[in-house]
Design a protein that fits this description.
Elements (H helix, E strand, L loop, with lengths): L8 E6 L7 H24 L11 H13 L4 E7 L2 E9 L5 E7 L8 H15 L7 E5 L3 H9 L3 E5 L3 E5 L1
Parallel strand pairs: 4-5
Antiparallel strand pairs: 1-2, 2-3, 3-4, 5-7, 6-7
C-alpha cells in the first residue's frame, strides 16, 4: 500500500443550509454523486429484493438535506490536490459512528480510506465521552472488512446484510 502525501489530503465539511447558495449546492451534488455510487455498489453485490429499494432523486436529496440540518449527521468530501475523490458521513448520537465511506475506485488501495477512518475516529472520540466508534459495511465488502480489521476494529455483530464493527 502506498501511503498518501497527507499534506495534499483534506476533508471538507459540506453544510447545505440554503438551496440558493450555488457553492454549497455544487458540494451537495458531489456528495450525492458519491452516495449514488455507493448505493449502486451495494446493489451490485447484494441481489436481495429488500436491498433493491429504489428512491427518487427528490427523496434522496431531501433525506441528505434533513440529515445535514436536522439529524446531526455531518458529511465531508475528501480532497487530494484539490480534487474530490470520495466522501464520508458521521454522527455523534446516540453513539459515535462512521455512517458511510466511499473512495473513488481509482484511488482505492492507496491509504486514503485509512486516513479518513483515523481522522474521523479522532474527531468523534475527541468530542464525546465514548471510548469506541462503530460502523458497518456490507457482508460482501471483503476489502473494507480487511481494512477495518487491520485498523484494530472488531466485529461485534452481523446480520443478513451488514457486518458491524467497534473499536
Amino acid at each position: 500500500m502506498r501511503v498518501p502525501d497527507l499534506k495534499m489530503v483534506a476533508l471538507k465539511r459540506v453544510w447545505l443550509k440554503d438551496w440558493k447558495d450555488t457553492k454549497t449546492v455544487r458540494e451537495f451534488i458531489k456528495v450525492r454523486t458519491y452516495m449514488d455510487k455507493l448505493i449502486a455498489q451495494d446493489r451490485k453485490y447484494n441481489k436481495d429484493p429488500e436491498m433493491q429499494e429504489e428512491f427518487t432523486e427528490e427523496q434522496l436529496d431531501d433525506g441528505i438535506f434533513r440529515d445535514m440540518n436536522e439529524r446531526g449527521i455531518e458529511y465531508y468530501l475528501l480532497y487530494v490536490d484539490d480534487v474530490d475523490i470520495g466522501y464520508t458521513s458521521i454522527k455523534f448520537k446516540p453513539y459515535p459512528e462512521i455512517i458511510s465511506l466511499y473512495i473513488d475506485e481509482k484511488y482505492r488501495g492507496k491509504g486514503y480510506g485509512r486516513f479518513v477512518i483515523n481522522k474521523m475516529k479522532k474527531y468523534l472520540l475527541d468530542r464525546t465521552d465514548s471510548k469506541d466508534i462503530i460502523f458497518r459495511t456490507g457482508v460482501y465488502n471483503k476489502r473494507a472488512q480487511k481494512l477495518y480489521e487491520a485498523l484494530g476494529f472488531k466485529v461485534y455483530k452481523k446480520d443478513k446484510y451488514h457486518v458491524y464493527y467497534k473499536g
